[in-house]
């Protein structure tokens, strides 16, 4: 079983919709929870991260961590076609990030 | 935001050749990382470094080697390329370890 699970999608929504992207994990030792965005043929770009439980907001993006359920979410409000990309979650433990496989998001104009 | 550069961006090479993938960063980060990424798969850590003259292997078994002679430079070398090495190679740097900033990647094809 993988330590971090992420639905590969694709998730297709109309422009302006609220998007919810999720990851589940099994290792309770994870401390930092990261969200990256990756466009085709580019490197991942750090969007935001949270430490331990709780919410964090940055513009149209909100990251949420529920350590009791071992579940993290990224919400995107007022989604735009430029948000179409693969979203990767990653979690920090000891010396390395453990990655999900990514969810492909498509925002239809 | 870190400035991190990788060359070449794309490389097609024959089996048995020696190749070096270059990675440089201008942010003065001590920590640097090499990952391998295949389509639809997780990033897998193959090497990391916490500073000059410090290198470690990651969890993914790799036939590559790395060096860290200067803070800003972290090249990855494959002594004898094989078709199984075909993949995307991503370099990242970090001050904290968990906030990692990535280069654009090198897409390697071994024929």
Give me the secondary-structure topology.
The complex is a heterodimer of chains A (109) and B (111).
Chain A: E1 4-5, E2 11-14, E3 19-25, E4 32-38, E5 45-51, E6 54-58, E7 61-66, E8 71-76, E9 85-93, E10 96-99, E11 103-108
Parallel strand pairs in A: 2-11
Antiparallel strand pairs in A: 1-3, 3-8, 4-5, 4-9, 6-7, 7-8, 9-10, 9-11
Chain B: E1 4-7, E2 10-13, E3 19-25, E4 31-37, E5 43-51, E6 54-57, E7 65-66, E8 76-78, E9 87-94, E10 101-102, E11 106-110
Parallel strand pairs in B: 2-11
Antiparallel strand pairs in B: 1-3, 3-8, 4-5, 4-9, 5-6, 7-8, 9-10, 9-11
Describe it for me?
The complex is a heterodimer of chains A (109) and B (111). Chain A is mainly beta and 109 residues long. In chain A, the strands form two sheets. In chain A, strands 2, 4, 5, 9, 10 and 11 form a six-stranded mixed beta sheet that branches. Chain A has a five-stranded antiparallel beta sheet with strand order 1-3-8-7-6, with no helix packed on it. The model of chain A has no long low-confidence stretch (mean pLDDT 95). In chain B, 0% of the residues lie in helices and 50% in strands. Chain B is globular and about 35 Å long. Chain B starts with a strand and ends with a strand. Chains A and B meet through strand 5, strand 9 and strand 10 of A and strand 5 and strand 10 of B.
Task: State the gist of this model.
Chain A is mainly beta.
The number of distinct helices of chain B, counting runs of at least 4 residues, comes to: 0
Give the N-terminus to C-terminus distance of chain B in angstroms. Answer: 36 Å
Please write the string of helix (H) and strand (E) elements of chain B: EEEEEEEEEEE
Shape of chain B: globular
Structural class of chain A: mainly beta
**Biggest sheet overview of chain A:** 6 strands, mixed
Helix/strand-derived class of chain B? mainly beta
Cα radius of gyration of chain B in angstroms? 13 Å
Secondary-structure element series of chain A: EEEEEEEEEEE
Count of DSSP strands of chain B:
11
Low-pLDDT stretches of chain A: none
Q: Give start-end ranges of low-pLDDT stretches of chain B.
A: none
Work out the helix count of chain A. Answer: 0
User: How many strand elements of chain A?
Assistant: 11
From the alpha-carbon coordinates, what is the Rg of chain A to the nearest angstrom? 13 Å
Mean of residue pLDDT of chain B?
94
Beta-strand residue percentage of chain B = over 45%
